[in-house]
Amino acid sequence: MSGAGPELYPGELPSWAVFKFPPDSAPAALAPPVADHYSFRNPIPIPENVYNAVLHPYVPLTIATTYAVSISTLNWWNRKHGNKPWKISKTRAFHAFVIFHNVLLAVYSAVTCWAMVRSLKHSIPHYTEHNAVVGAVDALCKIHGPRGLGDAVTYSNNLNRWESKNANIRIDSSGLPESTDVGRIWNEGLAWWGWVFYLSKFYEVLDTAIIIMKGKRSSTLQTYHHAGAMLSMWSGIRYMSPPIWMFALVNSGIHAMMYTYYTLSALRIRVPNRIKRTLTTMQITQFLVGVVFAACHLFVSYTVPVSVPYNVAEKVLSKVNVSSIASAASSATSSAVVAPATGVAIAFLKKMIYRAAGDEGLAENVYQPGSSSPASFSGATSNNNNQAQHPIHDTVNRIVYRTEYQHVPCIDTSGQAFAIYLNLIYLAPLTVLFVRFFIKSYIKRTSPNARNPTKHEAITKSARDAMRGVDREVESFGKSAEDGFSTAIMNGASALRGRATKPNGDGRVSQELEKIGEDEQSTKQRAKKIAKDVVGTAEAEAEKAKKGGNA
């Protein structure tokens, strides 16, 4: 598409080709460039084989599944034993580790947040630059190559190779973008800091381990968040999906504040409850904003300037007979020859002016007075009439470049699209629950029978109610899942001991009896205690009667 300048096209439907599942494995994630000197964007070199090994899909899937099953089992175990703190949680070493863990994650998250801010600062054009809006969209959509509108390097699924709209942008000998290119988000820090942030999601499960060892119940929302974050960061970095920078930036920023709060709490420094509520609000807001921002990438396209080569046919002077030139020169004083010659010069100057202005089309249409040839000396004569009649111009082809504006989508590969809709699948349940509870609460607060709070108050309180509703709904689902999981474990253990599994009805009764302390084991212990008490009482009475008889 050509036009007078770059244009933005929001709301366009994406191509169905990017929704391929499973997504194409190509291209592989590009490891951070290795610099000759220390660079904040790539502090420590990461070998390419190591970089891609931990991005294998089995790594996050295995860890996330193991984590979710383990926490569900430990929640059930703690509840069965009265949610008593573990012995290790009462030691000084455990308390010191908790403080170290929270300080480490608070500092690391703050540094990661700054690294992502720096990456954006070096990638997005200043608002005062020409075409700053489309340039900013291009910087956020195309994360490889040098900075500049239309200078990005992208992967073509159709051609199975990296390429650039700008013919002057180089691809290295291995067919990959030049590692020395800077000015785009990937090489400006996302490749290194995003990969490390992905790995940090595995370490963060220690948050849940600390809660479990304190005898508390890990919330289902926390378990869901940790497991989902592993998969979200993995897909974003593995497929180099453009919106993953936001997850790294916003999530690390919130975590910096959250772990600072945890550190203060571990040091027994009182923090107002409203701080905790604010952090919870920010986390849920992160879900809502993230799902909208990621989805927008699928529905955005724009135009970029592209130099397109064209073949232009031109007539140039090839052969000139010496006698013809002499004859033309000798007759140049006559007005019949001077006038056409002057017209040729003017036409030539016009062509030069049009070409200098970039208007090749106009230059091609300029004709010479008295002849279709740009420099024909039709009035020239020679003693050799045969030579004078020969044409003195040949037609040659010349390549000229014109700037056109071509349409490009924000998302190029099926892998990039997969990372986006995986994040949408992860965030959609929380978003739907939040919106449902918010609407219910807002309608209730603005109904005719309710008081008349201001619109701001109604929105604020409805959002708070919605967050509580989300937490309550997720927790209810989590406890039901834990009950079902614990029942499966107990039935499996019974089967291994060689006892038949009880019917469903008896199983439910056993669960209810266990909850109120009337299960089989508790009943046996209580019966033994009663029997012991009865025997003791009888022996005491007998001893008493014996003493009375002796008296």
Automatic annotation (TrEMBL):
<dbReference type="Pfam" id="PF01151">
    <property type="entry name" value="ELO"/>
</dbReference>
<keyword id="KW-0808">Transferase</keyword>
<dbReference type="GO" id="GO:0019367">
    <property type="term" value="P:fatty acid elongation, saturated fatty acid"/>
</dbReference>
<keyword id="KW-0276">Fatty acid metabolism</keyword>
<keyword id="KW-0472">Membrane</keyword>
<keyword id="KW-0444">Lipid biosynthesis</keyword>
<feature type="transmembrane region" description="Helical">
    <location>
        <begin position="244"/>
        <end position="264"/>
    </location>
</feature>
<feature type="compositionally biased region" description="Basic and acidic residues">
    <location>
        <begin position="541"/>
        <end position="551"/>
    </location>
</feature>
<protein>
    <recommendedName>
        <fullName>Elongation of fatty acids protein</fullName>
        <ecNumber>2.3.1.-</ecNumber>
    </recommendedName>
</protein>
<feature type="region of interest" description="Disordered">
    <location>
        <begin position="497"/>
        <end position="551"/>
    </location>
</feature>
<comment type="similarity">
    <text>Belongs to the ELO family.</text>
</comment>
<keyword id="KW-1133">Transmembrane helix</keyword>
<feature type="transmembrane region" description="Helical">
    <location>
        <begin position="324"/>
        <end position="349"/>
    </location>
</feature>
<feature type="transmembrane region" description="Helical">
    <location>
        <begin position="58"/>
        <end position="77"/>
    </location>
</feature>
<dbReference type="GO" id="GO:0034625">
    <property type="term" value="P:fatty acid elongation, monounsaturated fatty acid"/>
</dbReference>
<keyword id="KW-0812">Transmembrane</keyword>
<dbReference type="GO" id="GO:0005789">
    <property type="term" value="C:endoplasmic reticulum membrane"/>
</dbReference>
<feature type="transmembrane region" description="Helical">
    <location>
        <begin position="97"/>
        <end position="117"/>
    </location>
</feature>
<feature type="compositionally biased region" description="Basic and acidic residues">
    <location>
        <begin position="509"/>
        <end position="523"/>
    </location>
</feature>
<dbReference type="InterPro" id="IPR002076">
    <property type="entry name" value="ELO_fam"/>
</dbReference>
<feature type="transmembrane region" description="Helical">
    <location>
        <begin position="284"/>
        <end position="304"/>
    </location>
</feature>
<dbReference type="GO" id="GO:0042761">
    <property type="term" value="P:very long-chain fatty acid biosynthetic process"/>
</dbReference>
<dbReference type="GO" id="GO:0034626">
    <property type="term" value="P:fatty acid elongation, polyunsaturated fatty acid"/>
</dbReference>
<dbReference type="GO" id="GO:0030148">
    <property type="term" value="P:sphingolipid biosynthetic process"/>
</dbReference>
<keyword id="KW-0443">Lipid metabolism</keyword>
<dbReference type="GO" id="GO:0009922">
    <property type="term" value="F:fatty acid elongase activity"/>
</dbReference>
<keyword id="KW-0275">Fatty acid biosynthesis</keyword>
<feature type="transmembrane region" description="Helical">
    <location>
        <begin position="418"/>
        <end position="439"/>
    </location>
</feature>
